[in-house]
Amino acid sequence: MYECARIRLCEYESTKFPYLHTVIKQIEIAVNPDQVDDSPFILKRLCSKLKVASEDIWDWKVARRSIDARGRRPLYRLRIDVYIEERIPALSPPLSTMNDVRARPEVVIIGAGPAGYFAGIEAIQLGLKPIILERGKKVQDRRRDLKAIQQDGEVNPHSNYCFGEGGAGTYSDGKLYTRSHKRGNIQEILELLVAHGASTDILIDAHPHIGSNKLPKIISEMRETIEQYGGEVRFGHFVTDILIKDHKVTGIQCEGHDIIPASFLILATGHSARDIFTLLDSKGVAMVAKDFALGVRIEHPQGYIDSAQYNQEIRENSLPAAAYRVATQVDDNGVFSFCMCPGGLIVPAATAPGELVVNGMSLSRRDSPFANSGFVTSISVEELAEHGYKGLYATLDFQRDVERTLFNAGDGSQKAPAQRALDFVNGKLSPTLNDTSYIPGLWSAPMHELLPEFVYKRLKLGLIQIDKKMKGYLTNDANIVGTESRTSSPIRIPRDEFTYQHPDIQGLYPCGEGAGYAGGILSAAIDGRNVVRKVMEQVSAKD
After folding, report:
1. CB-count burial class (<10 Å; 0-12, 13-18, 19+) for 122
2. Helices (H), 76-185
3. Segment 449-474, tens digit of pLDDT
4. 270 band by pLDDT with thresholds 50, 70 and 90
5. How far apart are CA 278 and CA 414, in angstroms?
6. Exposure pattern of 104-116 as b/e (b: 16+ CB <10 Å)?
7. Left (φ > 0), alpha (ψ -120 to 50) or beta: where does 507 sit?
8. How far is residue 146's CA from residue 20's CA, in Å, rounded to a whole number?
9. CA distance 151 to 347
């Protein structure tokens, strides 16, 4: 009935844990979905596999939880740490190393997204005072502007799905998956999120997420922590100038505010702050165009994805909405899913009037009847040169042109152009569209003509190839919605690999997604912490 558990006897080194000589047994078991929360059943399994009495197991905890849907029925795979005649050791709370930094050296951070806020908390733990400048509003106050873009098509260039406290990640599902394990301690990031209100599930799930309904509270709690220990978060601070003298940062000018002195400036502005690129370019700060990805959102009924992934007509209640990740190659270019949102919603993500940009999000329960994902293709600087896009702004101009083309094809609102997936592949206008989660609404459009020809070709062939791997993925029950264009920053702000400072500007620290060094909440948070540590090295050297 069950696969045999694999048992490993592990003695953890004191360098990894704050206790010595604790021997635990680590077991991997598979259980049915309806048994994953059945503690008595799991304890019985542990006793059976270890051949010990239940009273000998003083503590146990799930260290890792994942879903294996390869068989006839999905299973949960659990990796469990079992403490025999030992208690789970008490660990120091993640905020136990916070310091009062009111009189400490200052570091100015532009951007209150994950890179900016985690940089702020790390600064306090190291003994620096963070001053965080955010062009947008507090996370709760953003909601009025999100309602305006959803219902009225009005885009506030300083407060939208990308700008404001928490950054773009606040309303993008809160997915916490990254492959950047070598860049920093992911567990510490997760523990900090739990300390500010996230579910402890994120500590054990293979693909953790928080949910866009819960993130605002967590983000505001992080702000309160920063302020409690003497850091500052200033909203409505739109940067209009970065003062540089003799190749050194000296201060920041924000619209309507006095100059803020700064010797250490962390630039964590996110992937959509195009004005920052223009500002830096006007001051002769070196930057480079970088490859990125662009495409569409594809939205299926969630029931279809559940059926395809779980091999069940109706998903078991104890299973979450199914997710997927697909990828293929077309003419040596990647075509792949991006930011997949099971049980999610498509939202308008433009940051200025005259653009049509969509993104995906989902709430913590992931209980929407729709599943959506970016479906994009990689775009290289070299190939854009063949299409007339050259220089520093090659990728940014291409990105903006696509967004404007799709906007101008419509009625001047945030109603998005869309096409049924099979019609998209066949180059046929859809007479009707499927129901959608996208609140501004859809209009039937010739997406095969609106997208650049080479982009359309790759997406078309990618859909055909992926349908062979995930049968039924290419279906007229799915909508193709344009455009998914903010996958990553189109420009990289270079930095020295040892100091993390800009190679030409002392005190300027490019950071996170906007600088081209991260791609999601976790990697941005890790980068923010790493950059602050480099700042601290410079502060310590001055002392």
Report:
1. buried
2. 114-126, 142-147
3. 999 999 999 999 999 999 999 999 99
4. very high
5. 26
6. bbbbbbbbbbbbb
7. left
8. 51
9. 11
